[in-house]
Structures are given as structure tokens and as C-alpha cells.
Amino acid sequence: MGDRVTLATATGLPFVALAFHVATAGLALAAGFIAIAVRKGGVWHRRSGLVFVYAMVASGIVASAISAYEGKSTWGGGVLAAYLVFTAWITVKPLPGAGRRVDIALMSLAFALGTAGYIIAFTALGRPGRQIDGVPAGMMFFMNTITLLAAIGDARMLRARAIGGARRLARHLWRMSFGLFIASGSFFLGQMKFIPQPIRILPLIVVAAVSPLVLLLYWMWRIRLRHNLRGLMTATPIAPPRVPSTS
Q: How buried is 22 (Cβ within 10 angstroms: 0-12 exposed, 13-18 middle, 19+ buried)?
């Protein structure tokens, strides 16, 4: 259980799970970068974004299952990626009839992931190399801070009961972008050894890995600070749920 499972050594269900994870992760990366490149709100953006969400949710959940199977304490990363892109999607495309209970459940999940992640990060500070399963404590603190900020954002949305315009668009874009950053960083940096040697050019690999994070900062600067929505499809506010009359 403690040994790392690879496609070369896995058999049976672990092999199927790994192959599925690799395929969906590759599809998510391709769809995510297409969504970044095309016009926001256009047909290709919506289609590639939907593929990205489906692939990331599937890949993230399977990745967490594989990590749990290997006995890793850092298995929550895949669930975090799935949570981010799913909540980003339902921000602009609410689930029919889901109601507030789904939003509360997702918020609770984020708070649980962030809290548990912080406990593991503090544990890593006392381990050799200040890391667990190859993940440095600093990266754990960073990722789980983002998780808790996302959970706080969920709480604020639930309290407001409706968000629209720039706030809604910013929520969608930063969660999508950070989800893509998790995927790109995990692949281009975490799996660098699988990139063929002739194209394993470190500066290009780093640029590919961090480009979604750079774009995230750009969109937040443009939308939240400059309030510039030019060329973007803005969304109408999410209507608060109707409360049955007691009269």
C-alpha cells in the first residue's frame, strides 16, 4: 500500500484508475488552455469550459482515490481541484433545483479540506525536510489558505443570497484559473520526468505551469480593480430562492 502505484507496475483496478486519471487530466489541460485562449463568453469558451469542468472533476476525484489507496495524507488536492472548477461552473450555470443546501455542503467541504490541510502542513514542519509525501509545508500552507479563502467566499455568497456582474464573473474566473493552475503545475512540474527530453526546456515548462496563475491575477486586476468588463459576457444576478408564504 505504501509503494507508489504507476502505470508500469499497476494491474487490475489500480491500472484502470491511473489510466483514467491520466486521460482525463490530459483532456482537462487541453480544454483549459483552449478556454483561456478563446473569447470569453463565446461558443468555444463555453464548450471547452464544460469539457474542462467534467474532465477536472473526474480526474480530481480519481486522483484523490489513488492517493488514498497509496496511503498518502495529501489526498485532498484532487478533491480541491474538483471543488474549485465545479463551484466556478455553477456560479454561472446554477444546478436546476439544487437550492442552498448544495452550496452549504460545498462550503462545508472547503472548510473541512482547508482545516485538515493546515493540520497536515503544521505536521510537515516537524518532519525531515519539512515535507510530507514530497509536498513542502510551504506549498501546503499556500494551497490550504486558498481553500479557506474559497470557503469564506462561499459563506459571503450564501449571506448575500445573490451575486452578479463583476463579482460573479470574478468568482467564476479565479476558481477556473486556479483549478487549471493545479492541473498545469501538477503535470508540468510534478511530472516533468515524463516530458520527452528534446522538449523538456525548463523555462518553457515553468511558464506553462504558472501561466494560469498569472492570468488569474490579470483577471482579478481587470475585473475587480478596474471594473473593466469590455468584451466579456456578463451574467445576471443569481436570484435568491423563494420562501413559501406562511400567510
A: middle
- Residue 115, C-alpha cell as written in the block: 482545516
Q: What is the pLDDT of residues 160-188, one digit of tens each?
A: 877 878 888 999 999 999 999 999 998 88
Please give the Cα distance from 208 to 194 (Å, whole number).
15
In the chain, what are the domain boundaries?
12-225
- C-alpha cell recorded at residue 66: 489513488
pLDDT in tens, 110-165: 999 999 999 999 999 999 999 998 889 999 999 999 999 999 999 999 998 778 78
Ranges of beta strands (E only) in the chain are 131-132, 135-136
The set of residues, in sequence order, having a beta carbon less than 8 Å from that of 185 and lying 6+ positions away, is 209, 210
Give the CA distances from residue 1 to residues 5, 69, 77, 123, in Å, rounded to whole numbers and listed in that order: 9, 7, 19, 22
Neighbours of 10 (CB within 10 A): 16
The SS3 call for residue 181 is helix
